């Protein structure tokens, strides 16, 4: 009998990226996103418009890691607070909110999401959620951004969820390496 042991970060499959962040105002960032024909949903626009979403005047570089929820040890899925707490215990940090638009601009070859497998009230197949500090406990206010490619179009999308939402084991998150 051959039983495979679940590998947990850092001993698992992961995607590492280096992303340059900062140096643009919010309006300059939006202009650059639109120039690349990247689409933003209404929740993403709400995040951009909020005063709590700030951008850095100075450029800086972040090392990121993309992992599935199961790579953090959640074989049955987990809530945002469970996922973020476990990532922190494993030496990963939450991303600054401004990382998501810069990551979207840098990651232009994201594979197409699977349109044939729709999941209501779940992260879409092929999406990558950028793990960032939640700005407010208001359940109707966007919690952060995720990246997605649908019908060839690149998206930077905001999302909402409550504290009880269970993320699937195969949902992907991006964290900052410490």
Please tell me about this protein's structure.
The chain has 178 residues and is an alpha+beta fold. The protein has one domain (15-177). It contains 4 helices and 8 strands, in the order βαβαβαβαββββ. Strands 1, 2, 3, 4, 5, 6, 7 and 8 form an 8-stranded mixed β-sheet that branches. Helix 1 (26-35) runs parallel beside helix 4 (99-106). It is globular and about 45 Å long. The protein starts with 14 loop residues before the first strand and ends with a strand.
In short:
This protein is α+β, with helices and mostly antiparallel strands and 178 residues long. The protein has helices at residues 26-35, 42-49, 80-89, 99-106; strands at 15-21, 39-40, 60-68, 92-93, 128-130, 144-150, 153-159, 172-177.
- Strand tally is 8
Order of helices and strands: EHEHEHEHEEEE
Structural class: alpha+beta
Level of helix content? Answer: 10-25%
Note the main attributes of this structure.
8-stranded mixed sheet; single chain; 4 helices; alpha+beta; Helicase; 20% helix
List strands and helices in order, with pairings.
Blueprint: E1 15-21, H1 26-35, E2 39-40, H2 42-49, E3 60-68, H3 80-89, E4 92-93, H4 99-106, E5 128-130, E6 144-150, E7 153-159, E8 172-177
Parallel strand pairs: 2-7, 5-8
Antiparallel strand pairs: 1-3, 3-8, 4-8, 5-6, 6-7
Helix pairs in contact: 1-4
Protein name: Helicase
